[in-house]
């Protein structure tokens, strides 16, 4: 096997050497060889360093996986690899304008980094959050002076992919098409995100947000800011009365209890408290202060709880919107339409009022298909035909639906308790609990085994036809819950009996195979 001659460059390009490797050498072993060859490479912990291939502009690149061989990456002689530290800093901006610098592993996909980022910030349900890339205007904003304004987030999409009418409507409706979400399946470096760039932390999936209250002030504040911005920019349409109610609570959060001598018309910059359509309404600031007066007894935390609770009552809350085109009935013409995705349904909405026209539960979705220009849903027996729309955001819609389904399945798995994996056709048998007995659960198959119910208050001695015999004990490693003890009788009949005991707070479970 011919050797592979590679140029190895230390981080920063300060030292470069050519080293020969066998193509079947793993990346882990190659790093070890490099440390032996480079005196300069012997620094820090070996696990903190790896091999990196950068592009010609040195903006993007790929980390080589430690378990892969060099030959897997189709490297050629004289290719350059960089031996560099995996750890790097990432600037994360919160919705309230605060910026946190977090140390992350650059070689890990963003899905793994979200665990670290959310843990550092104090968020437990990391799978419901994502990172958004901001445009240059947002990067250069002086946020402390514009603390309560909304951030500008835009996707870099070629103008040829957008028509003027749809673009104008998209900006008016504030759809998720404008969100440039960071791909969780790829690393930061693969997406060209370097240490100088700041990303925005934002809730992407509204699944467990109804459980957030004053006991979780970090997530409560993030949820409040995101809900507030969505109301102010028109993502959630509200009536004038509702807009004043939200504004009154927001004034209390920002300025404290109502003060008659201070809080008078002219005090507020209304564009920071009301949707644009209501800012110029005559006498509306007086109505805002009337609502403000109603909440004088609330603390700031309780006011945020009230704001988010009221926001959840809006029909559009928790909906992610996409502007699409659908075919008119009986005509060969495409017209604008809003497609919405929530934690439990896919919605078809009016593109002007955001009124829900049709709701399809996620449980009825059998299949979906995405192409660069179309998105199709198959509801199986629940609908007579497919629902297909024209959109350039098909992949983003798929990621959202798949993300909600993944979260639902994960939540379900944590609630379910499978003492042991059963087989097809098996049934579960349960007996009631008595003080001296346990609840017995059994996977009963069609092979003729019988359910044995015995008192656990007596010694576990098995008596075959020829008298008492000793038995062996062992642990069952494949079961994930409880403590397990096996009992085997070698004397009487072929079906080996294994009694498995699993202890919980109120019950004991025994399984006889």
Short account of what is shown:
InterPro entries: Band_41_domain (IPR019749), FERM/acyl-CoA-bd_prot_sf (IPR014352), FERM_2 (IPR035963), FERM_central (IPR019748), FERM_CS (IPR019747), FERM_domain (IPR000299), FERM_f0 (IPR032425), FERM_N (IPR018979). This protein is of the alpha+beta class and 513 residues long.
The helix fraction, in percent, is: 10-25%
**Structural class given helices, strands, pairing?**
alpha+beta
- Count of structural domains: 4
Strand order of the largest sheet: 2-1-5-3-4
User: Major sheet, described briefly?
Assistant: 5 strands, mixed
Query: What do we call the CATH topology of the largest domain?
Result: Acyl-CoA Binding Protein
Helix run count? 9
For the record, give the distance between the C-alpha atoms at the N and C termini, rounded to a whole number: 53 Å
Shape-level CATH architecture of the largest domain: Up-down Bundle
Radius of gyration: 30 Å
Secondary-structure element sequence? EEHEEEEEHEHHEHHHHEEEEEEEHEEEE
Number of strands: 20
pLDDT average, as an integer? 78
Unreliably modeled segments:
138-152, 156-161, 418-449, 456-466, 469-513
Strand portion: 15-25%
Keywords: Cytoplasm, Cytoskeleton
Subcellular location: Cytoplasm, Cytoskeleton
GO molecular function: integrin binding
Main location: cytoplasm
């Amino acid at each position: 096997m011919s050797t592979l001659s590679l140029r190895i460059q230390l981080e920063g390009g300060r030292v470069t050497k050519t080293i020969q490797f066998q193509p079947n050498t793993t990346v882990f072993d190659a790093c070890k060889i490099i440390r032996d060859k480079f005196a300069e490479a012997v620094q820090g912990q070996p696990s903190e360093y790896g091999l990196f291939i950068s592009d010609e502009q040195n903006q993007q690149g790929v980390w080589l996986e430690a378990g892969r061989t060099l030959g897997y990456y189709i490297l050629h002689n004289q290719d350059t690899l960089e031996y560099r530290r995996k750890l790097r800093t990432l600037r994360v901006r919160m919705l309230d304008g605060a910026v946190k610098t977090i140390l992350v592993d650059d070689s890990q996909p963003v899905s793994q980094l979200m665990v670290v980022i959310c843990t550092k910030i104090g968020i437990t349900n990391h799978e419901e959050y994502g990172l958004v890339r901001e445009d240059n205007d947002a990067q250069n904003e002086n946020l402390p002076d514009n603390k309560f304004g909304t951030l500008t987030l835009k996707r870099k999409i070629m103008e040829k992919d957008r028509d003027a009418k749809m673009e104008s409507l998209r900006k008016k409706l504030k759809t998720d098409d404008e969100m440039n979400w960071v791909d969780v399946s790829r690393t930061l470096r693969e997406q060209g995100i370097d240490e100088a760039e700041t990303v925005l932390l934002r809730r992407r999936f509204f699944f467990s947000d109804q459980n957030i209250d004053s006991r979780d002030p970090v997530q409560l504040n993030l949820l409040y800011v995101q809900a507030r911005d969505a109301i102010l920019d028109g993502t959630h349409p509200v009536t004038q009365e509702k807009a004043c109610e939200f504004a009154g609570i927001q004034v209390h959060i920002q300025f404290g209890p109502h003060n008659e001598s201070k809080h008078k018309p002219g005090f507020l910059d209304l564009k920071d408290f009301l949707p644009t359509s209501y800012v110029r309404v005559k006498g509306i600031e007086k109505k805002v202060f009337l609502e403000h007066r109603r909440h004088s007894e609330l603390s700031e935390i309780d006011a945020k709880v009230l704001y988010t609770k009221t926001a959840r009552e809006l029909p559009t809350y928790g909906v992610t919107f996409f502007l699409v085109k659908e075919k008119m009935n009986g005509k060969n013409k495409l017209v604008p339409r809003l497609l919405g995705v929530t934690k439990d349904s896919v919605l078809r909405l009016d593109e002007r009022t955001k009124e829900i026209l049709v709701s399809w539960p996620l449980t009825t979705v059998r299949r979906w298909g995405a192409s660069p220009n179309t998105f199709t849903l198959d509801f199986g027996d629940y609908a007579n035909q497919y629902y297909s729309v024209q959109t350039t955001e098909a992949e983003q819609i798929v990621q959202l639906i798949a993300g909600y389904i993944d979260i639902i399945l994960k939540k379900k798995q944590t609630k379910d308790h499978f003492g042991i994996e059963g087989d097809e056709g098996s049934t579960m048998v349960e007996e009631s609990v008595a003080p001296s007995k346990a609840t017995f659960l059994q996977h009963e198959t069609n092979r003729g085994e019988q359910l044995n119910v015995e008192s656990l208050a007596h010694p576990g001695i098995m008596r075959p036809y020829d008298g008492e015999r000793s038995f062996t004990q062992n642990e069952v490693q494949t079961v994930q819950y409880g403590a397990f003890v096996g009992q085997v009788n070698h004397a009487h009949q072929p079906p080996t009996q294994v009694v498995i005991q699993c202890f919980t707070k109120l019950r004991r479970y025994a399984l006889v195979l």
